[in-house]
Write a structure and sequence with these properties.
Elements (H helix, E strand, L loop, with lengths): L7 E10 L4 E3 H4 L7 H8 L3 E3 L8 H15 L9 E5 L10 H8 L5 E5 L5 H14 L5 E9 L9 H4 L4 E11 L6 E8 L7 E2 L2 E3 L12 E3 L3 E2 L1 H21 L10 E4 L4 H10 L11 H4 L6 H11 L8 E8 L3 E8 L1
Parallel strand pairs: 4-5, 4-6, 13-14
Antiparallel strand pairs: 1-7, 2-3, 6-7, 8-15, 9-12, 10-11, 14-15
Helix pairs in contact: 3-4, 7-8
Bound molecules: acetyl coenzyme *A.
């Protein structure tokens, strides 16, 4: 570890990966009582990618997204010092980041998982920023990857229509404080509302006979959609405004809003509350649904590939989800 000093950080590259199998609303309506019209009207989602195959996991998607981000800047994986894998659907409860580290050949990197559901990428980016600012590390790979299809009850129409699988990656590098592009961040948690969105642990009814220990397994996703909706539309604009205000920036200076892709109506409502024009919203959930920790880096990567985001643009990144946890990052691209 180098001596501690305050440095800047910039996002050098992004990459993303999606499963090859696409499922339309009409296909979902073959096994739950729903319709394309209901799903599109309430959520804006038209289709989603789902990771099929017994031997496939988030690791496959995370590795692919990471390799694409590395390839774009021809970076040797051995230059990566730290990997943070934001996921709530790991392949191993002890963590999946080390497998990503090994499979991409980042042999000098320390790697760990960070669990914060749909806010995972925002929290991981801020965590990476701390390591870069202090000068502890020079290159950090942040990956958001989730396969919530493994944790959805496919007979529950209120949740199964929402989620898709994907991974997105970003490589951050330290730089001088003058070139710093992470201008500010603002993070929040309110555990009082955790009941509204969870994949809860359920123990067996009878304990282990000798030890009085209750073992069990995780249940499917449960969500109070209305409460999550109200929370997002109320709290996310406040977080964005707080974040902008504390660095004396105004909403007029914002070029792009990259919000967690949960629901088109949430994106529109947040932009309206902030009086930000709807053509500044980056949205791709029509094609992918809610991909949890992957949604922001996937949207960012696509927007960059489509040449939407330009050098020096002010990009607001805001995530929200289970915890409940939410937060904002202001980036000068
Ligand atoms: N198809 C048809 N009807 C349905 C479906 C469906 N897929 N799902 C629910 N319905 C029915 C309900 O049963 C209900 O019927 P009723 O009026 O006869 O009781 C009716 O539609 C209305 O249901 P609501 O739940 O009130 O629908 P709502 O307008 O709230 O939309 C939705 C539901 C889309 C889930 C919305 O609440 C939402 O998007 N919430 C936010 C979710 C979110 O952002 N999650 C992000 C975090 S995810 C994470 O962190 C992992």
């Amino acid at each position: 570890m180098k001596s501690l000093m305050i440095q800047g950080a910039k996002i050098l590259s992004t990459g993303s990966a999606i499963p090859s199998s696409s499922f339309s609303n009409n296909e979902i309506s073959k096994f739950v009582d729903t319709s394309d019209e209901w799903i599109v009207t309430r959520t804006g989602i038209k289709e989603r990618r789902l990771l099929q195959g017994i031997d496939k996991s988030i690791i496959d998607l995370a590795v692919l997204a990471s390799k694409k981000a590395l390839d774009k800047i021809s970076m040797d994986p051995s230059q990566i010092d730290l990997i943070i894998l934001a996921t709530s659907s790991p392949h191993d409860l002890f963590g999946s980041a080390s497998k990503v580290q090994y499979q991409i050949g980042a042999l000098n990197a320390v790697a760990f998982d960070l669990t914060a559901a749909c806010s995972g990428f925002v929290l991981s980016l801020v965590t990476a920023f701390q390591f870069l600012q202090t000068g502890a590390y020079s290159n950090v790979l942040v990956v958001g990857a989730d396969v919530l299809s493994k944790w959805v009850d496919w007979s529950d129409r209120s949740t199964c229509i929402l989620f898709g699988d994907a991974a997105g990656a970003a490589i951050l590098q330290s730089c001088s404080s003058i070139d710093n592009s992470i201008l500010n961040f603002q993070l929040n948690t309110d555990g009082n509302y955790s009941k509204h969105l969870s994949i809860a642990y359920q123990h067996n009814i009878t304990p282990h006979s000798n030890l009085n220990l209750y073992q069990g397994s995780f249940k499917y996703i449960s969500m109070n959609g209305k409460e999550v909706y109200k929370f997002a539309v109320f709290q996310v604009p406040l977080s964005i405004l707080k974040c902008l205000n504390s660095v004396n920036m105004s909403v007029e200076e914002v070029d792009w809003l990259v919000l967690h892709q949960a629901n088109e109506r949430i994106l529109t409502a947040i932009a309206e509350k902030l009086s930000i024009s709807s053509n500044k919203i980056i949205s791709n959930l029509r094609k992918y649904g809610n991909t949890s920790a992957a949604s922001i880096p996937l949207a960012l990567d696509e927007a960059i590939q489509e040449d939407k985001i330009s050098h020096n643009d002010i990009v607001i990144i805001a995530g929200f989800g289970a915890g409940l946890t939410w937060g904002t990052i202001i980036v000068r691209w």
